[in-house]
Write a structure and sequence with these properties.
This protein has about 190 residues and is an alpha/beta fold. The protein is about 40% helix and about 15% strand. The chain has a 6-stranded mixed beta sheet with strand order 1-3-2-4-6-5. A hairpin with a 2-residue loop joins strand 5 and strand 6. The protein is globular and about 40 Å long. The two termini are about 30 Å apart. About 40% of the residues are buried. The structure holds uracil and iron/sulfur cluster. The site of uracil (URA) has 11 residues, from loops. The site of uracil has 11 residues, from loops.
Amino acid sequence: MISGDNMTLDELNEKCLACRACKLCEGRTNLVFGVGNEKSKIMFVGEGPGEQEDLQGYPFVGRSGQLLDKLLAVIDLSRDKNVYIANIVKCRPPKNRDPEAQEQDECIKWLREQFKIIRPEIVVCLGRIAAQRLISPDFRVTRQHGEFIKKGDTLFMGTYHPSALLRYPENKEAAFADFLALRGKIKEMNIQI
Ligand code: URA
Ligand code: SF4
């Protein structure tokens, strides 16, 4: 248990800044806790900070972040208004390698505390690492993107990671469809954004 019962997101962020629970702390310039509206019912979860994120201290602020912001804007979502964005690991893995299982195991404790405070109704996993961690260990983005899966009180959906879309733009159309499906789900569930 990291947080007390009434801890705010800012207080949790403060605690997280001191975290040295895995070796990723050694290479960080900034810890990247998360960004957005903590009252949001929609959360997006990526993998971990890249170079720009590490330098600036916020998630998805590099090229892939610009693409994410565009996709969000199409369905009237924005980090400045009505979503919250975080990552599976809060410190940048060296040379952007995949975060190791043990690093994810440590860091996901912080994400779970973020979930407890925000209590999102929908969580969108950006890419394989987040989807395999939060939906199922054998999740295949190419086959299962856009599917909504209920776990407890929360709906989860996995879609392409924006940096994968920059590398393979032929998947942008499918990702776009996932975002439209998300918009449909928000309407269907009558979530006020
Ligand atoms: N990729 C991620 O998974 N997260 C970020 O914050 C930036 C790039
Ligand atoms: Fe702590 Fe997570 Fe950073 Fe590891 S990656 S040091 S668990 S905040």
